[in-house]
Amino acid sequence: MKVVILAGGYANRLRSVTNNGEIPKTLLPISINNESKPILFYLLEKIEKLPNVDEIIVIVNDKYIDSIKDAVNVYSPNVDVSIYSDGSHSPETALGANVAVQLANENISKSYAGDIMIMASDNYFEFPLSDVVNYYENLKDKYGDNINLVVSKKYLDSEREFIANNFGILNIDSDNRIISFDEKPGIENLKSNNASLALYMFNRRDLDKIDEYMDSATGKARDSLGHFINYMINNTETYTYPITGIFYDIGTPDEYLRLAPKSEENKLDNNI
User: Fold this and answer.
1) pTM for the whole thing?
2) Cα separation, 23 vs 70, whole angstroms
């Protein structure tokens, strides 16, 4: 299995703790069980526990490629890591997650026919990734190999406004098949409490559809991965795995504050 980490963003909302954008968001420290380590290290630890992963692909940008390469060397993973830049060098030239997925797919051998896990580089979660893979394998046993999976979490009604403005929302049937996907729909258009967690499983044949999608996509549809997911839902069989437990999308100062080491809290307190 291949695992792709999307780390090409510029974290504009976290400039108060990224030294005005000089530090990649995925290298921000988080405190887990009183141990401080970069978000990326936490994700690599999770991935290393998976069986049968033969390569981790990290998609970055020109501004951060050296610092992320240095960090991976420090971590020294027990799985081969390939790092590619999307060629952008500033927020103004950012190319978006779909370009990152397309770049990752281009750098996987065309002869490879296995599964591909794709994840954001700025998420904290406590469930093992093996739960996701096992659920996906069970779906394939039931429905065949040509399916895809979006990991989700069902939030409380009290959190509806938060998820409506910060997540892609999945509308699903009784078999957990995704019927439609609404990218940050706003509270007035929110149809469910099922939030996409930017963690996916794709079969290789369907992931190749990223090329035909990008050939026709324009404007914001080229940037947000949610638009590609909606395309996949309309053209493939796509299911969701609803996880329970803790999950944080570390995209804002408020969310980062939940996990920030004490040394970082003062910076956030002074800038929120």
Assistant:
1) 0.94
2) 12
